[in-house]
Amino acid sequence: MSITVTLIIQGLAFLAVAWLVMKFGWPMILGAIEERQKKIADGLAAAEKGQQDLAEATTRAEAIVREARDRARQIEDQASKRANDAIDAARQTAQSEGARIVDAAREEAVTETHRARDALRREYGALVVAGAAQLLEREVDAKAHAQLIDKLAAEIARG
Amino acid sequence: MAAEGESGGMTGYIKHHLEHLTVSVGEGPFWTLNIDSIFFKLGLAALFLGVFLRVARRSTSGVPGKLQCAIEMMVEGIDGIVKETFPAKTKFIAPLAITIFCLVFLMNFMDMIPVDLLPASAHAMGVPYLRVVPTADLSTTLGMAICVFILIQYYAIKHKGVAKFVGEMFTAPFHAHGVVGTILLAPANLLLRLIEELVRPVSLSLRLFGNLYAGELIFILIACMTLGGSLMSGMTWAMMPMQWIAGFIWTAFHILVITLQAFIFMMLTVVYLSMAVQEH
């Protein structure tokens, strides 16, 4: 239990270990710790920034969607308006066309009626003259009575 | 209980356990080397360096392994203590502190190994004496304490300069006004300063040595409870459970002691060093 020269060796060994730890151990471990702390801090900051960006992007996306929806509704309105207009125009055209066709048909029918009536009258006049000639039992001199017959025929045609 | 017997019962057993394995390197009792203390201290230092430097070399700032985590916890804790206590910036104090703590703890931990296991094994291999706890050897603790003492003086001179260092030896702790008073108080100041400085390595080394020496001695005494007892004797059978319980209690208590002593040695070193760089 006496003090011996051992203490010099023990002391030097102790200092040598401490020196080795300072040189090759301590800075690496503390460096790793500090680097990790920095990484974590950076990561947290980045996460926060990402969250902020996400929120911003969400609001922007919402605005874009809203705008697009408005625009779509506008386009839809415009389209339906135009369609209605087109339908109206078509209806009008069709109506006027129909009316025109009906008028033309009616006019033609009237003309046709007149023509038929004229023909009938003429035929009727001739028949009347023929009948009268037969009643008179003599041949009506066409030349002598042509004036009369024409007058008669005109009267029939007029009536 | 293999190493006892031949040289006289309990006293011989205890004496044998307290004998170092020595090699004489010169004239007189001082010039002997305690081979066992040196061997175990260097072995434990190699173990500590092996683990610590390996982890340091492979340390990653990414996801750390469990061992790296454990060592980082210790490093961060000791770094915090040193930063709190030591006023100046330093590269050496924190590694010194962790070296003291780990090395002293490992050396103290040799006390946890059953007291006869290693000496008896060594005896079987032809080694006559073996003490396995280097901190229960005053040479080890005093060697470390003297290193701490030298470091204290080195840091004091480095931070204050030689003039101020010498000046403080004569003018603190008693301050006087005027030249005559200063000269009158100088011897007292120097004396107090010398006592103050010299008492530190002594108390530092004796505290650790005393705790561990006493602890080892109590383990030896517990081992003595059934020393030389015959299996035919009823006393042996009565003592066996007692010995087991006593051994258990003392081991459990000693876990606290060895950790605490390692911490105290480290803490006091840091405190002494920070006192050395502060002005009086």
Can you tell me about this structure?
The complex is a heterodimer of chains A (159) and B (280). Chain A is mainly alpha-helical and 159 residues long. Chain A has one domain. Helices cover 93% and strands 0% of the residues of chain A. Chain A has helices at residues 6-136, 142-158. In chain A, helix 1 (6-136) crosses helix 2. Chain B is mainly α and 280 residues long. Chain B has one domain. In chain B, 72% of the residues lie in helices and 2% in strands. Chain B has nine helices and two strands; from the N terminus they run αββαααααααα. Chain B has a two-stranded antiparallel sheet. In chain B, strand 1 and strand 2 form a beta hairpin. The chains are: A mainly alpha (159), B mainly alpha (280). Chains A and B meet through helix 1 of A and strand 2, helix 2, helix 3, helix 4 and helix 6 of B.
Number of folding domains of chain B? Answer: 1
Biggest sheet, spatial arrangement of strands of chain B: 1-2
Amino-to-carboxy terminus distance of chain B: 56 Å
Summarize the helix and strand pattern of chain A as letters: HH
Percent of residues in β-strands of chain B: under 5%
Total helix count of chain A? 2
Briefly say what this structure is:
The complex is a heterodimer of chains A (159) and B (280). With 159 residues, chain A is mainly α. Chain A has helices at 6-136, 142-158.
Topology:
The complex is a heterodimer of chains A (about 160) and B (about 280).
Chain A: H1 6-136, H2 142-158
Chain B: H1 9-17, E1 22-24, E2 32-34, H2 35-58, H3 66-85, H4 93-109, H5 117-124, H6 138-160, H7 162-171, H8 179-224, H9 234-277
Antiparallel strand pairs in B: 1-2
Helix pairs in contact in B: 1-8, 2-4, 3-4, 4-9, 6-7, 6-8, 6-9, 8-9
Question: Which features would summarize this protein structure in a list?
Answer:
heterodimer, A: about 160 residues, mainly alpha, B: about 280 residues, two-stranded antiparallel ribbon, 9 helices, 2 strands, about 70% helix, disordered N terminus
